């Protein structure tokens, strides 16, 4: 740096903000000692300070204090030519003159002065003192867990493909799950600026949630007392055991998977699941894609299957109509008007009343059927299997399929043994034969359990059309002529299904 570029070489400009009577003239180089030439620190407008040391070519420093008083910055200038180096003591005097007494970084100052003198380069905005800011006092509080703060569904990070039906905006919680964690009290601490003046601390206002319905305060926070839906009502946490969907089940809600009862006031969109650990109540028509109710299913309107829709009910089913879907009910089923084109399974009884219609499809019912009409004028094939347990029938079908596969493998093993006899193939044949014998025993036991109610009856108060087949405990009768107001029951002695006229 040459003398023309050096700020300290222009004393008139440096001294101009202060009165002339308080600013000493810079003596000519070599005419005074350093002690005599040292000028006191001058605080300029805006907290800016200037300090001259010796002649015009000597190193010097400028210091400013931030407006909030929490830091002091220095501009360090190296000596020029044969000028005297900058001394840490000069910075000490400057700081003292400005009243800086707290948070002085002496080690950093010494290193910076050394680098400035050696590198002969100015150092700008170097922090020489730093105050300590006040720390707010925070009361003890319960803070909501972060996952419950989200608004709407969140797409997983890194997901290449997203099925938005899988993204639910519902905050479903489990019993014992922590909803909010207790945050300990933080004691406030006063701050100190670089002049040693104390700054008071504030008392921070924080969110504090309280336990409400089905919530309990435990060590460490607030937990859910039951499975359910978390509802945040102001500063209170409630867990609702019943989920009420005010509108439709669609992309706004995503799939409904809930541990308690579900009440749907709108429609269920095509392709959306409804799984409930309790009962499901649907006030509109239920477009069933995948519906699973652990307890009862009640549909005020009806059920229409979509894309091979499946409905599973652990309790009773009540609906206005059921159409084009697969339905499995562990209890009784009550349908007011019609069951059309369904594969319908029930471990109880299907009751369609005196006017309800069973048309097309296949029905498996343990305790029978009551309806107003069976089949239709087009002679659409309608099958009724009464008195048999459909769960046993499903196991029987699976066992028969495994038996068919084993029999095929045994046949191939026998052929291979005849072509190339050996111990390995003989052991395989023996293993297959043992499996066939074991599976045949299982099938025999299932056949004994298949007939669950020999007293099951099929009662039709109106027309029975040709094309209908009624089977009771695996004994069937094909309706070839129109019938009216009749009852089908099993005559165990004769081993056939008999048809009786219903009395008025």
Explain how this protein is built:
This protein is of the alpha/beta class. The termini are far apart. Residues 1-53 have low confidence and may be disordered. It has 6 helices and 36 strands. The strands form 5 sheets. The chain has a 21-stranded mixed sheet that branches. The chain has a 5-stranded antiparallel sheet with strand order 1-2-3-4-5, with helices on one face. A 4-stranded antiparallel sheet has the order 6-8-13-12, with no helix packed on it. The chain is elongated and about 130 Å long.
Mean pLDDT: 84
Helix content: 10-25%
Discrete helix count: 6
**What Rg is obtained from the alpha carbons, in whole angstroms?**
45 Å
β content, as a range? 35-45%
Query: What structural class results from the helix and strand content?
Result: alpha/beta
What profile does the largest beta sheet have?
21 strands, mixed
End-to-end CA span: 122 Å
Q: What does the oligomeric state look like here?
A: single chain
Inertia-based shape: elongated
Stretches with pLDDT under 50, minimum 5 residues: 1-53
Number of structurally distinct domains: 4
Number of strands: 36
């Amino acid at each position: 740096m040459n003398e023309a570029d050096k700020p300290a070489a222009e004393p008139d400009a440096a001294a101009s903000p202060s009165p002339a009577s308080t600013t000493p003239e810079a003596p000519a180089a070599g005419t005074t000692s350093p002690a005599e030439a040292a000028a006191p620190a001058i605080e300029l407008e805006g907290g800016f300070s200037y300090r001259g040391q010796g002649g015009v070519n000597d190193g010097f420093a400028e210091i400013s204090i931030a407006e909030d008083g929490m830091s002091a910055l220095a501009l360090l200038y190296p000596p020029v030519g044969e000028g005297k180096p900058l001394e840490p003591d000069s910075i000490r005097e400057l700081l003292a003159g400005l009243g800086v007494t707290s948070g002085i970084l002496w080690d950093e100052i010494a290193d910076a002065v050394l680098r400035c003198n050696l590198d002969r380069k100015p150092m700008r905005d170097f922090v020489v003192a730093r105050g300590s800011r006040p720390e707010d006092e925070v009361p003890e509080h319960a803070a909501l867990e972060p996952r419950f703060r989200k608004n709407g569904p969140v797409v997983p990070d890194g997901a290449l493909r997203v099925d938005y039906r899988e993204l639910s905006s519902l905050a479903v919680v489990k019993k014992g799950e922590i909803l909010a964690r207790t945050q300990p009290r933080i004691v406030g601490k006063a701050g100190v600026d670089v002049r040693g003046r104390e700054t008071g601390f504030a008392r921070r206002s924080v969110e504090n949630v309280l336990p409400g319905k089905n919530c309990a305060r435990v060590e460490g926070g607030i937990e859910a007392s039951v499975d359910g839906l978390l509802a945040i009502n102001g500063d209170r946490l409630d867990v609702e055991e019943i989920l009420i969907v005010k509108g439709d089940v669609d992309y706004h809600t995503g799939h409904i998977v809930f541990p308690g009862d579900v009440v749907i006031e709108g429609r269920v969109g095509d392709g959306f699941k409804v799984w409930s650990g309790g009962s499901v109540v649907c006030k509109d028509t239920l477009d069933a894609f995948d519906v699973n109710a652990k307890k009862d299913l009640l549909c005020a309107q009806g059920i229409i299957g979509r894309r091979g829709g499946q409905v599973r009910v652990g309790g009773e089913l009540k609906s206005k109509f059921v159409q084009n879907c697969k339905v499995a009910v562990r209890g009784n089923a009550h349908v007011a008007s019609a069951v059309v084109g369904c594969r319908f399974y029930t471990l109880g009884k299907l009751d369609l009343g005196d006017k309800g219609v069973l048309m097309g499809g296949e029905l498996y019912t343990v305790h029978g059927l009551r309806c107003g009409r069976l089949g239709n004028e087009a002679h659409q094939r309608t099958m009724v299997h009464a008195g048999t347990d459909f769960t046993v029938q499903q196991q029987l079908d699976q066992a028969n399929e495994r038996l068919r596969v084993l029999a095929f493998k045994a046949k191939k093993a026998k052929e291979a043994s005849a072509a190339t006899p050996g111990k390995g193939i003989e052991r395989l044949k023996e293993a297959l034969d043992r499996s066939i014998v074991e599976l045949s025993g299982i099938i025999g036991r299932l056949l004994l359990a298949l007939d669950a109610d020999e007293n099951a009856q099929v009662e039709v108060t109106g027309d029975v059309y040709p094309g209908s087949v009624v089977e009771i405990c695996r004994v069937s009768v094909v309706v070839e002529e129109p019938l009216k107001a009749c009852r089908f029951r099993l005559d165990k002695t004769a081993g056939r299904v008999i048809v009786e006229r219903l009395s008025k």
